[in-house]
């Protein structure tokens, strides 16, 4: 994989504590090299409006499309321009500009037509619109978020993509009520997997933020699990690489909910070993079934995904 480094990569400095912490988790120099390189642009074909073959016909004259192995409607896209979001196909809702790793949680959740699904932290709607196309606009998605401005972006994207089976709600996730076949909790996080997209993460990162997010995620996952039907499936995901926000949160769920079972995830993807012990904390060996992806594994963002089943 050929990497294109940021023009100012040599000037970007990581905090000492960040380097120390992540050096315990992965090969620091490789992690740093990928984080200071541009992400490959990725699109998802919106099959609610156009077929993959038709979309290819429209784009292949000016753009190279390379399939994303873990999602058949996903493609890395390369051309003379970088502004894929300005294409007519984007305005028409034929494509959604979505990072390749971000497509994984809906694939793992696998919502079907007719399912009742909760997307607990839905904005701006990349995964909501992906689930809607997987469900062929049949069934119901309750798409929730906590702020007006985030919901505005969600509403625009649902409309642009022709989503007809989503209900938008606005409240803190821990106040949601109902009973659902499937739940996606793409949790608010510190974003340490998204440095390639947002370099400011390097400067905003601190351990207090990580611990605060971890506390919030633990609350959210327990409440989300309580809304899941018996036999139902929940996916917990973050774009963080912090064990406190990932394996520790799953460990917390397992300790508090005896009817929660972590399921294996089988995808055509290069993955890294989940963290079972970090800084004096030991986590359940069940976290080994989770998906931990570093930027250097597949030349994507960093991501964490866990699939959880509720006993019948």
What can you see in these coordinates?
This protein is an alpha/beta fold and 312 residues long. It has a domain at 101-310: Vaccinia Virus protein VP39 (Rossmann fold, 3-Layer(aba) Sandwich), CATH 3.40.50. Helix content is 30%, strand content 22%. The strands form 3 sheets. Strands 5, 6, 7, 8, 9, 10, 13 and 14 form an 8-stranded mixed β-sheet that branches. Helix 9 (207-226) packs parallel to helix 10. The chain is globular, with a radius of gyration of 19 Å. The mean pLDDT is 97.
List the helices and strands and how they pair.
Blueprint: H1 16-23, H2 28-35, E1 42-45, H3 52-59, E2 64-67, E3 74-78, H4 88-91, E4 95-97, H5 104-109, E5 116-119, H6 126-134, E6 140-145, H7 148-160, E7 166-170, E8 180-186, H8 200-204, H9 207-226, E9 228-238, H10 247-256, E10 260-263, E11 277-278, E12 281-282, E13 291-293, H11 295-298, E14 303-310
Parallel strand pairs: 5-6, 5-8, 6-7, 8-9
Antiparallel strand pairs: 1-3, 1-4, 2-3, 9-14, 10-14, 11-12, 13-14
Helix pairs in contact: 9-10
């Amino acid at each position: 994989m050929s990497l294109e480094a940021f023009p100012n990569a040599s000037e970007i400095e990581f905090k000492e504590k960040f380097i120390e912490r992540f050096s315990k988790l992965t090969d620091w120099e490789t992690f740093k090299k990928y984080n200071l390189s541009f992400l490959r642009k990725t699109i998802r074909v919106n099959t609610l409006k156009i077929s993959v073959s038709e979309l290819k016909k429209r784009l292949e004259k000016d753009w190279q499309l390379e399939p994303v192995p873990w999602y058949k409607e996903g493609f890395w896209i390369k051309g003379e321009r970088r502004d894929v979001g300005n294409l007519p196909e984007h305005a028409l809702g034929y494509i959604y500009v979505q990072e390749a790793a971000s497509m994984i949680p809906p694939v793992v959740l696998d919502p079907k037509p007719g399912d009742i699904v909760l997307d607990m932290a839905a904005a701006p709607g990349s995964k909501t619109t992906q689930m809607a196309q997987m469900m062929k606009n049949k069934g119901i998605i309750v798409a929730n978020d906590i702020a007006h401005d985030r919901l505005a972006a969600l509403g625009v994207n649902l409309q642009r993509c022709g989503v007809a089976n989503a209900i938008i709600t606005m409240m803190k996730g821990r106040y949601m009520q109902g009973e659902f076949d499937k739940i996606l909790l793409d949790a608010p996080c510190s974003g340490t997997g998204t440095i390639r997209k947002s370099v400011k993460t390097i400067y905003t990162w601190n351990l207090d933020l990580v611990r605060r997010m971890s506390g919030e995620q633990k609350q959210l996952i327990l409440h989300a699990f309580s809304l899941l039907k018996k036999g139902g499936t929940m996916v917990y995901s973050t774009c963080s690489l912090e064990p406190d926000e990932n394996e520790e949160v799953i460990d917390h769920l397992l300790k508090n909910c005896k009817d929660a079972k972590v399921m294996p995830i089988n995808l055509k993807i290069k993955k890294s070993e989940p963290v079972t012990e970090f800084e004096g904390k030991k986590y359940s060996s069940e976290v080994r079934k989770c998906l931990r992806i570093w930027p250097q594994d597949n030349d994507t963002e960093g991501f964490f995904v866990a699939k959880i089943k509720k006993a019948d």
